[in-house]
Prior knowledge:
The structure holds two protein chains of two kinds. Chain A is mainly α. Chain A has one domain (about 5-75). Chain A is built from four helices and no strands. In chain A, helix 1 packs parallel to helix 3 (about 35-55). Chain A starts with a helix and ends in a 16-residue tail after the last helix. Residues about 80-90 of chain A have low confidence and may be disordered. Chain B folds into two domains: about 10-95, RNA polymerase sigma factor, region 2, helix turn helix motif (Rna Polymerase Sigma Factor, Chain: A, Orthogonal Bundle); about 100-195, Winged helix-like DNA-binding domain superfamily/Winged helix DNA-binding domain (Arc Repressor Mutant, subunit A, Orthogonal Bundle), CATH 1.10.10. Chain B has helices at about 15-20, 25-45, 50-65, 75-95, 100-110, 130-145, 150-160, 165-170, 175-195. The N and C termini of chain B lie far apart (about 40 Å).
Amino acid sequence: MLKCRELSTLVATDELENVGWMRRMEIRMHLLMCGHCRRYLQQIRAIGRGSRDLAGEREAGSDQIERMEEHILSCTCERPGEPDSGTPGDRE
Amino acid sequence: MFFWTVPTDEFTSQDFLDLLRRRDAEALRRLMDTYLPQVYRAARGAGLDEHDAEDAAQDTFVTFMEKVHEFEGRSHIRTWLFGILYHKISESRRTVQKRERTQDIEDVIESRFKTNGFWARPPRTTDSDMFDAEIRRHLEECLEGVTTDQRMAFVLREVEGLDSGEICQTMNIERSNLGVLLFRGRNSLRECLEDRNLGPTHPD
């Protein structure tokens, strides 16, 4: 019989999707009967949603991206229009 | 052992890699348009402030271009980029890494269950709207208590949506290690949020 401890571990380690069908049935039955585990699952999922929201709020603006791209290009590439030096610039 | 196929797009073609190896600015720009925002976001997610995340994201692409001749296309470019970023972050954090609080969280989880495997102290009850609101208020602070590796694994999974195989390649770890990192990270966050008072204790 599937215990709460095992179910919560499957949830937190991302193994919920990787179990066989027998286990899947057990999980479904357990969640049907156990409000604590349902709540745990909901909270872990809500934490995922919250982290996506937080990341969305902190994305780089287009100006910032532009500035970073220019910096990277100046470090790594020939300027547009300049002749190719012919050396790939590999650093061994 | 798990199997996982490399996703294909224009960035995995040999022609595109050849352009990069020749330092083609347009090709690099296309790559950056797609992945620079993601790499920056992952750096922020891993705990770097705006300035450090910008440095780390830039360094990641510069290093990538220095090493692109070694890239054989066996993994996705994105995996390589995240891998370089992860390496840079863990190197810079090594000296200031917070004391590993692994044992703490393992003990906390253990204390949550009875010896028969059922909940001794179940998650506190709360309505889901309230939980979402509490998360928004406290998540950033709670993330500070999570180690860099746990945080990276969590962010690559939840925010960037990488599958397990790609995260393991990025962080150079086994699937079981990834499971442990996610387990500890998520439970630390849940415990921290619950400590910040997520509604009344469940009556039973």
